[in-house]
Amino acid sequence: MTRRLWAVFLAALVVATGGGLFALSAAGVFNRSAPTADPTSTASTPQPARLPQPSTAPATTSTTTPPVAQTQPSTPPHPSKPAPTTRPSNPVPSHPSPRYVFPVGGCRADASQSHHDYPASDVFARVGCLFVAPVDGRVDEVTRVDSWEPGSNRGADRGGLSVSVVGVDGVRYYGSHLSAIQPGIAPGVVVRAGQALGRTGKTGSARGTPPHLHFGISWPTGPNMWWVRRGAVAPQRFLNSWHEGGQLSPVALVAASHRAYGADRGCRSYC
Predict the structure, then answer these.
(1) What dihedral angle (degrees, nearest 10) is formed by the CA atoms of 202, 204, 205, 210?
(2) Structure pTM?
(3) What is the 3-state secondary structure (H, E, C) of 236-268?
(4) How far apart (Å, rounded) are the C-alpha atoms in residues 169 and 133?
(5) What SS3 class is residue 198?
(6) What is the DSSP string of the chain?
(7) If we measure between CA atoms, which residue out of 246, 254, 252, 250 comes closest to residue 101?
(8) pLDDT digits (tens, 9 = 90+) for 88-127
(9) Closest of 7, 227, 41 to residue 120, by C-alpha
(10) What backbone torsions phi and psi does residue 26 show, to the nearest 5 degrees?
């Protein structure tokens, strides 16, 4: 009897223990492998985004040259107008004031204070005196052959041997009746004030007169316009100044005379 009771007791104990374990298992007490997230917490509390973690791999050197920023050159506010440059307070003129000299050198010479029919001057001097450039300039026209004949007395031939020079002042100076022309004197040659151009003489219409240099002042013209070249402005006041070492310039008078002359109609007197 006692053994039967003890067996019944043990059976009841096993049943009770198994039922308890079954109840605990059903309740999820032993389920620890994957805890479930709280759906309420997930919906109400957003999880922060995960930032990318820096790589732990060793840094490598890039072989690509990074672009170099180009520096734009500074430009003036007005590209079409260059910035003004600083000028010296006393700039040197590109063309200094011309120096004038009397056109006959090496001997005594006397300039006439009048001339027949058109403006000019006869500077009387013995044969062989130097005819010199009265100012820096460039040789304009040269006549090396005496073609004058008394019977025809052509105006273009009256000067005989002659040389004209256009000065740096823009005025043309003419000397004729020469006995010789210096070697190397030709149109286009640059000459200096006082440089010999030829020698005084009696060629052309001066064959029957005392030797002299016919001297004329005018504005430059085209070739062979002898009626202007022989003289268009009275030169006496300038010759007198230069003879005394003065520097009187004919530029203004020549310009005024050129304007008053008007259109060229050829020879107008003593043709």
Answers:
(1) 0
(2) 0.66
(3) HHHHHHHHCCCCCCCHHHHHHHHHHHCCCCCCC
(4) 13
(5) strand
(6) -HHHHHHHHHHHHHHHHHHHHHHHHHTTTT--SSPPP-HHHHHHSPPPPPPPPPP-SPP----SPPPPPPPPPP--S-TTSPPPPP--SSPPPSSPPP----SEESS--EE-S--SSSS-EEEE--TTPEEE-SSSEEEEEEE-S----TTT--GGGTT-EEEEEEETTS-EEEEEEEEEE-TT--TT-EE-TT-EEEEEB--GGGTTS--EEEEEEE---STT-HHHHT-SB--HHHHHHHHTT-----HHHHHHHHHHH-S--S--S--
(7) 246
(8) 443 433 456 899 999 999 999 999 999 999 999 999 999 9
(9) 227
(10) -65, -30
Q: What band does 57 get if pLDDT is binned at 50, 70 and 90?
A: very low
**Residue 36 in 3-state DSSP?**
coil
Question: How many C-beta atoms surround the C-beta of residue 256 within 10 A?
Answer: 11
